[in-house]
Specification:
There is one protein chain. The protein has 9 helices and 3 strands; from the N terminus they run ααααααααβαββ. With about 280 residues, it is mainly α. It has a 3-stranded mixed sheet with strand order 1-2-3. Helix 9 links the parallel strand 1 and strand 2. The longest helix is centred in the N-terminal third of the chain and has 49 residues.
Amino acid sequence: MKLLNLSKIGSLALLSLIVLIASLFHVKEINSLYTAILGVATFLMGIFIAFSISDRHSRIDELRRNDSVERSKLILLYNFSKYFGEKKHKAIQNVTDEYLMATLDYSVWDYNETEPNFRKIVDEVCQIKPKNGHQSVLFDNMLSILDSLTTARRETIGIIQDRLSKFEWGIFFFLSIVIVISLLFINSGSFMSVLIISILSLTIFLILNLLYTLDNLSWKVEVRIFEPYQQAFEAMDLMRYYSEDTIAGKMVKNHLKHDYRMGIFPGVYPDLSGKQIKIIRRRK
C-alpha cells in the first residue's frame, strides 16, 4: 500500500526533484523524433490509463455493493432473531459481532480467513427450532438470508483477487518513462518549458498513484469500507470497533468522535491470537 501512495510532502519532494532535473537537462535543438515518440506514448498511455481507472472504479463499486448487501442482511438477521427469545437474540448478536470484528482485523486480501467466523453465524441460526407458524416464516427468511450472505461472500472474494497484473504495471511504467524522457528531450530550458514539463511529469506519477490506490482498494478507505462497518455495529446495538493497526496507520479519523472498542494484538500479523479489546472513551 505504501509503494506508490504519495503524501503531500512526497508529492512536493517529487515535484522539486523533477524541476531540478528539468532545469539542468535541456536541449538546444528539438528533435522531431522525440516529439513523435511523445505523441504515440501519450496516446497509448491515455487509452490504457482511462480503461484501467474505469475498470478499477467499477471493481470498487461492485465490492461496495456486495459489502452493503452483506451488512444489511446481517442487520436483518439480527433483527429477526429478536423473535426467538432473548438468549438466541444475544447469541446471534455475539457471533455477528465476532464476524464483523474479524473482517476488520484481517487485511482485505485475507477476507477469506473470516470463513470460520461466518460458519458460527450459520450454526447459530440453523440451531433455531421454530415453535409456531410466525417463527417458521421468520426462520425460512433467515435461511434465505444465509444463502444470500454466502453468495455475497463468494463474489467478494473473487472481486478482491482481481488485481492488475505485473505485465500491466510494466506497460504503465514503461510508457511513463518514455513520456518523461521525451519531455526532457524537447525541453528548451526556458522557465515556461521547465514548469510545464515538471507539472506534466508529476501528473503522470499522481495518475499512477491513483490507479494504484484503486487497485489496492485503499482509495477513500474510511468512507467506503471502515465507516459503513462502524454503522453496522451501531445498528446492532454494539460499540464501534477498530483494530490497533488501523488507528496507528492513520487509516481512520472518525473514531475520535465516538466511544469505541480497540482490538490489540500481541503478535505480528497475521497472528491474531491473544487478542485483547480495550474500551476507548471519546474526549470531551
